[in-house]
Design a protein that fits this description.
Layout: H1 2-26, E1 33-35, E2 42-44, E3 50-51, H2 56-59, E4 62-63, E5 75-78, E6 93-95, E7 98-102, E8 115-119, E9 124-127, E10 139-143, E11 146-150, E12 153-155, E13 158-160, E14 164-168, E15 173-176, E16 188-192, E17 195-199, E18 202-203, E19 210-211, E20 215-219, E21 224-227, E22 239-243, E23 246-250, E24 253-254, E25 256-260, E26 264-268, E27 273-276, E28 288-292, E29 295-299, E30 302-307, E31 310-317, E32 320-324, E33 329-333, E34 344-348, E35 351-355, E36 365-367, E37 370-374
Parallel strand pairs: 4-31
Antiparallel strand pairs: 1-9, 2-3, 2-36, 5-37, 6-7, 7-8, 8-9, 10-11, 11-14, 12-13, 14-15, 16-17, 17-20, 18-19, 20-21, 22-23, 23-26, 24-25, 26-27, 28-29, 29-32, 30-31, 32-33, 34-35, 35-37
Length: 376
Amino acid sequence: MRRRHLLGSGAALLAAPAFAQQHQHGHGAPALTPRPPSPDRFHNVFQGGAPHHLTPQQEAQRVTGSPAPPGPQGRWVTRTEMPIPRSEMAWATAWEGRMHVVGGYGEGQFNRAYHTVYDPASNRWYDAAPLPRGANHVAVVADAGRVYALGGFIEQNRRCDDKAFIYEVAQDRWREIAPLPRPRGAAAAVALNGRIHLIGGATDPAPERASISWHEVYDPQADRWELRRPLPAGRDHVGCVAHGGVIHVVGGRFNTFQYNTDMHHVYLPARDSWEERAPLPTPRSGHGMVVYRDRFFCMGGEGGIIENGVARDAKVFGQMESYDPASDSWQSHAPMPTPRHAVAATAIGDWIYVAGGGAVLGGMVQSAVHEAFTLG
């Protein structure tokens, strides 16, 4: 498997100049800097970003069994690994067929300003303009040629801020916009009808780091935020997508992954109200969630308890479960080859790309692992 991965990376190196030229001339944007894959699959942020090998006890945290009825299994393939093992980006977004991954833990620090772009056509990673300030658990979404980066934590999963930025894809440039009405991190961001919804998350005081239900909407034309009906149950690290004119918020946690939930709410903009839908089969938080073939696919996540630095009942989920909004029902698919949480996940073409993420419960171990799923 590892040898096939390296051969694939070699082919990507040959394709990279063509992509750089296309990106510069075909899309009217500056060429981005290509980056080779990391030589290490895992790093330990608490050891200064040193290479890490998972212990048998850590690998035993992986769980993949789903209570949902089986659907088409699909298949996973290995793609070029990230340039640096990372996690806690929260989460990722795509524009013009490329994945943008912003901020996160990496190289022994928690407030990184990373901005890397993955191009599936060349199977290669590129550096883009860095986030103006480093942070983790930044909410990101793309719309109308821009990538939004909203809030985040400056320290390890705490000390949130109200900073808001947009990245102009065509110029490879960030600029600051109106700050969030209230600081928060680990929120969910989605674009709907030309506006940006920011939902849930967690906020200060840092020792408490409590989940919130706030729902605020950004109007790009007015550069202004407005309040909307809050989420019925405050939580963070949720899955969130917009589809069919409504917004779905799935799973997440109440304050900590010890209290994961299977809750599934849908926001109806015309009524400014929320309704319940079929719950997530595997309660979890820190999972990825994307729209693919008119279904909502949830993958990865974590759960368990950490007391005095010791993990108990630790789980890193590899389940791939999907929801059909037409029938309000869930089914399961082939699980992730490498279970992870706090992943960067996007759907591009007929593939779901899942990069980076935490390999064990909590934020200790980052990964460069990159795997893609298709029903094709």
